[in-house]
Amino acid sequence: MKKQGLLLIISGPSGSGKGTIVEQLKAKDDFSLSISATTRSPREYEEDGVHYFFRTREEFERMIENQELLEWAEFCGNCYGTPRTYVTDQMQKGQNVILEIEVQGALQVKKLYPDGVLIFLVPPNLEELGRRLTKRGTEDKETINRRIHRALEEMEFVPQYDYVVVNDTIEQATEDILTIVRAESMKCSRNKEIKKVFKGEI
Amino acid sequence: MKKQGLLLIISGPSGSGKGTIVEQLKAKDDFSLSISATTRSPREYEEDGVHYFFRTREEFERMIENQELLEWAEFCGNCYGTPRTYVTDQMQKGQNVILEIEVQGALQVKKLYPDGVLIFLVPPNLEELGRRLTKRGTEDKETINRRIHRALEEMEFVPQYDYVVVNDTIEQATEDILTIVRAESMKCSRNKEIKKVFKGEI
């Protein structure tokens, strides 16, 4: 019996380390990473079709019109969205899929897929978040302050998430998420055929 | 900040190995085991106040009348129940509590404590259940057949549980339950003060 893949939706403020953790998850276990479309400019190391599909605003708006996006949102002046087909194809094949998306998008997806697992990733505390954002060196002070303010706003949405993971260290937080995935796979709602399996009927 | 203890409610048919697994959990981690009251006769190795509180039917009925039981049920001609005070005291101290109870009782407790975590333990398959019950050598053939029939009936209630754990080996099933406990401790509903913790307010 082929079980449907798990849809893992990971959000967290800039500086929560979600990018690194998602890379670790891909390396450690059997996850496909959904690639988002965005109108924001690529960072130096980012490649089109690998980190994001980089699109113009016009192209992005066409994707919305054609209902090619599972969710989309505007954040700090840029649009981000999740191409629908890739996600649903993978899940039907029994493959777990990770969406790394921000709060508004995550809640849109949860409405469409109540079985999706919403995880909110937080840095251990406010000071550490400030340190991480400063260390990154890609944004000016004003942007950093805006991101900290935004982080506090986003945390108001934590109660609508399923799990909260504190990123003290990348290793621990990655292990925590794998723990959640293992527990979720034992949910009765994901094992509806258990009696038939027990009786040897399937 | 002292978090409330987790209430873990474990059920499973005779021969699912729940007794052994509960012993392993007590040995491995920070769990208190609730001691049930019962009207059934002690097995050879069982001690009053350690494995069960062995009570006469008259004594048991007095406990029901005095509302001293969190739940109770009759099963194969015997009554089983959970003394209330011990459980609530431990949880308030931040201690995790395990209840090893049968289906009817488990569902009663879940109604009273929706935050309780219901785990259904199953042997890997029907043949293995038969083998385990026969090997135990404490029941005659008729009782074994009744228990197998009862196991199949009980599995109808799995959809009302939160998790299902397959007991292939004691070690794996114990680890699975610890995984569930770790994941549950990251539930947003159990971390309502996370924003205050993040801001350093508590």
Automatic annotation (TrEMBL), chains A, B:
Keywords recorded for this protein, A-Z: ATP-binding, Cytoplasm, Kinase, Nucleotide-binding, Transferase
Catalytic activity: GMP + ATP = GDP + ADP
Intracellular or extracellular location(s): Cytoplasm
This protein's record includes keyword Nucleotide-binding: yes
Molecular function GO labels: GMP kinase activity
Listed EC numbers: 2.7.4.8
Residue ranges of every copy of the Guanylate kinase-like domain listed in the record: 5-182
Family to which this protein belongs: Belongs to the guanylate kinase family.
Alphabetical list of HAMAP family matching this protein: Guanylate_kinase
PANTHER family assigned: GUANYLATE KINASE, GUANYLATE KINASE-RELATED
Function: Essential for recycling GMP and indirectly, cGMP.
Listed name of the protein: Guanylate kinase
